[in-house]
Amino acid sequence: MKTLFNNYLNTFKGLSVEVWWLALISLINRAGTMVIPFLSIYLTESLHFSLSEVGWIMSAFGLGSVVGSWLGGKLTDKIGYYKVMTLSLLTTGFLFIALQFLKTFETLCIGILIVMLVADMFRPAMFVALSAHSKPENKTRSVTLVRLAINLGFSAGPAIGGLIITTLSYGSLFWVDGITCIIATLVLITVLNPKKVKVLDDVTVKNPKSAYQDRAFLIFLVAMMLFGIVFLQYFSTMPLYYREGHFLTELEIGLLLGINGFLIFVFEMPLIKWLENTSFSKIGLMLFGGILTGASFIILNFTSWSGILILGMLLMTFGEMIAFPFSNAFALERAKKGNQGEYMALYSIAFSFAHIFGHNAGMRLVDQLGFDNTWYIITLLAAICVFLLFGLRQYLNVKKANREKAKLPI
Description:
Blueprint (H helix, E strand, L loop, with lengths): L1 H9 L6 H16 L6 H8 L4 H29 L1 H19 L5 H15 L2 H11 L6 H29 L2 H22 L23 H18 L4 H9 L4 H27 L5 H17 L9 H28 L4 H67 L4
Helix pairs in contact: 2-8, 2-9, 4-5, 4-6, 4-7, 4-15, 5-6, 5-7, 5-9, 7-15, 8-12, 8-14, 10-15, 12-14, 13-14, 13-15, 14-15
């Protein structure tokens, strides 16, 4: 056990102090976003919206995310990641507190759009900050550490959120969300002021290539958007399935979602460290992650036994543990060809589009076709994602072979 524990600790060695601070800020911020997994239940049960209306509200969530990610990337390239991160976190805190006072369909659509616009300005800025404060050989593990912190916060968040709902009210969640964002801002200002920290990987490209002209990156983005649509069902339609299909309470739903974060906290860093030392490519690993995540949905139709929910959560968790860190690392690697803010903004936007289409489509499918048919369709989307990643791997292999023949850059 001591050897296992020491080996576990060794997977964290070599990461910069700044990356650890970014991880802590992400932990504080994510622990506060406990309202998100319960948003669909809050809208249907507390505010009595129809599934169709919830779908449109969640589309506003995604649209705000798209605009915010794009704006965050632009501002990061112009004024720097530190200012963008600070502005985003602080403003988001106050907006979350205000969100609880919106009760009508129209005001909630507008309010959630604005909240996500400001909140997701943080994402491309954080990715660029992470890249700047990581040595090239540590980028995948640095991404994994931040993901670990995010998922540790997410592990505690839903469980605490379910407890708060049970003992207090849904409104209390918005206060917690807002206050934790403000606390994260104070930590950021204290420990990551650019005058006090050093940059380990300052990437400057004299003639940057536009991310919009990078064909491989665009194929990758479509695959990630599809993966995002599949993955995000666990935070919109799946909680409803837990409630309506298996009659779980909010606390039980929170604990089940908490399994995801706990497993990531325990296994992700050692798993990524091990996978980095194998011969598998980043794309091959993303492909395998897509297969596992798709399988987590199809098995739900095999039985009505509620224990299958745990197996589904396990498959999805290991799928995302493999797919997300290596997709982040792939995006950071491609970003060295051009403006990092633009590349990482597009990477974030791929998942924002998933928010726009995924939540709305999922809700409508459930409303019109039921849960079982919805899971079949979601599994099909996962299969298309896997096919695109397979095609991308073949495309890059051909490009690499041609490059070696002609001795030209990819």
